[in-house]
Amino acid sequence: MTAFANDRDDPTQALIASPNLHYLTAVPGAPAGRGLFTDGALTQNSTTFTSATAAFTQADVGRLIRFVNNFAAIDSGGAIYINAVQSATSVTLNKAAGGSQTGRNCMVDRDMFFRSAFYGAVDPATGVYYCIANDNTSGGNRSVLFAIAYPGARAELLESYPSATPGEMVMWNGYLWSHQARRQLTTWA
C-alpha cells in the first residue's frame, strides 16, 4: 500500500486512504514495456527464467514479468520480477518455480517505482506526509519521493530517481533533506 498511519495511543494500524498507489504511477520519461514473447520457460525449484526471443538487457532488472493466463509454475503469490540479467536469453527471478513449464506467453512490464516505502515523515506545520519508496525487494526498479497532502488525498509524485536511493529523511528550516538532496517542503493551496 502507499502509506499507513499509527496513532501513538492506539497500536492498531490504519491505512491512509489515498485513492491511488504510488507504484502504479507512470515513471516519467521511462520506456514502455516490451510486447508478447511466446517461449518463456522455467524449471522446477529454479529462479532461472529463459526465452530465446525476449532479448533481456540490464535495464530489465526490477521489471515485472507478466504471464498471459497466469503462470501456474510459480504458485507462491505476489509479484514476479527480474532480480538479475544473466544474458539476452536468461534472467534470475525473485522466486523459484514450483514446477516446470515451457512455451509460455509472457511480457516484460514497463519501468515501475519500488513498491515498499519505509522512510517517511510528516511536516508538523502542514500535516503533509512525505515518503521515499526505495526497497528493491518487492518489485520495481526506480525510487520515488512522493507526498500525500492529507489523509484521503492522492499520492503525488515529487521526484523520481534512477535506482534505489537511501531514504532517511530530515525536515529542517523549510526543507526536506534526503540522501544529499535538498527539496523545499511542498505547500498545497
Helix content: under 10%
* Secondary-structure class: mainly beta
Count of structural domains? 2
Low-confidence stretches: none
Strand order of the largest sheet: 5-8-3-4-7-6
Which word captures the global form? elongated
- Let me know the average pLDDT: 80
What series of H and E elements makes up the topology?
Answer: EEEEEEEEEEEEEEE
In terms of DSSP E residues, the strand content is: 35-45%
Number of helical segments with 4 or more residues: 0
Number-wise, the strands total 15
| Rg over C-alpha atoms, rounded to the nearest angstrom | 19 Å
* CA-CA gap between termini: 26 Å
Largest sheet: 6 strands, antiparallel
Walk me through this protein's architecture.
With 189 residues, this protein is mainly beta. The protein folds into two domains: 97 residues, no CATH class; 72 residues, Elongation Factor Tu (Ef-tu), domain 3, CATH 2.40.30. Helix content is 0%, strand content 39%. A six-stranded antiparallel β-sheet has the order 5-8-3-4-7-6, with no helix packed on it. Strands 9-10-11-12 form a four-stranded antiparallel β-sheet, with no helix packed on it. β13 and β14 form a beta hairpin. The model has no long low-confidence stretch (mean pLDDT 80).
